[in-house]
Amino acid sequence: MATTIPERRPEWLRVRPPKGENYQYLKQLMRSQSLHTVCEEARCPNIGECWGQKTATFMILGRVCTRSCGFCAVETGRPSGLDWEEPKRVAEAVQAMDLRHAVVTSVNRDELKDGGAAVFAATIRWIRRLNPQCKVEVLTPDFKGVYDALRVVMEAQPDVYNHNVETIPRLYKRVRPQAVYTRSLQVLKWAKQMYPNAPTKSGFMLGLGETWDEVITVMQDLREHDVDILTIGQYLRPSLHHLPIERYVPLEEFTALKAEGKKMGFRHVASGPFVRSSYHAREQAGDAGCSS
Question: Which CATH number does the domain housing residue 198 bear?
Answer without folding.
Answer: 3.20.20.70
